[in-house]
């Protein structure tokens, strides 16, 4: 075979492989809604009855073929998503998760008992830790997040996801949520429909706390409330008032800490909403 013939053969083989890949993709539709970056929640959609795995780990998929992907604040870059249709056909997609640069946030004036809890409250903290984990684990098979998410309160964004906090001079773990500063009594709305899996009047760190399950492992948390408007087990609609902004728990002033979770992973709620109402969208860098 001549060199020219060998090149033609290689090109034909490559074309066949590429056509096969596109054909497989066409047979198993797959759409991803969201930004592939650390801290993001990404929504996937395929065909009814589909199953999906991420790096070999099975994902929760609803009957219509929708599922949620979550990437922690320190998630690695390369992932493999495989979606299989009921007829056995499948599509594989390589996902590249972009890294993020997180801020350092210094906070002073916190009561020292919240920075270094005394030994007598350690048992309480352990019980509350498992209580919150249980509330996050309770999940519906119905994805109430299909309608998207809204900001739960309007105000100044005073804290961002992933920032490394130094409280009273002591380095703590990253801040896993978004803080919205507003006057005490400002209404807090459910970011999406769902079921209240926890409404607690007094958690040590977070004070009055609400967790809402939105289905398929996705939940949101609202803490430091002044007043609770719901109870554990309540069904809520998107936009329903579930409490008011306050300063309960470890807090230096009235604000809402809003968190987003997929299972036990802490995600950035800002990745599922646009700019705060009244704020201009950030300009894109050229």
Outline the structure in words.
- There is one protein chain.
- The radius of gyration is 22 Å and the shape is globular.
- It is built from three helices and 20 strands.
- The chain has two domains: 3-96, Sandwich (Immunoglobulin-like), CATH 2.60.40; 104-272, Glucose Permease (Domain IIA).
- Strands 9, 12, 13, 14, 15, 16, 17, 18, 19 and 20 form a ten-stranded antiparallel beta sheet that branches. It has a four-stranded antiparallel beta sheet with strand order 4-3-6-7. It has a three-stranded antiparallel beta sheet with strand order 1-2-5, with no helix packed on it.
- Residues 1-11 and 13-25 have low confidence and may be disordered.
- The chain is α+β, with helices and mostly antiparallel strands.
- Helix content is 16%, strand content 37%.
| Overall geometric form | globular
What is the CATH top level name of the largest domain? Mainly Beta
Regions with little confidence, pLDDT below 50 for 5+ residues: 1-11, 13-25
Count of helix runs: 3
CATH level-3 fold name of the largest domain: Glucose Permease (Domain IIA)
| Topology, number of strands | 20
Fraction in helix: 10-25%
Q: What average pLDDT do the residues reach?
A: 86
N/C terminus separation:
50 Å
Class by SSE composition = alpha+beta
Helix and strand sequence: HEEEEEEEEHHEEEEEEEEEEEE
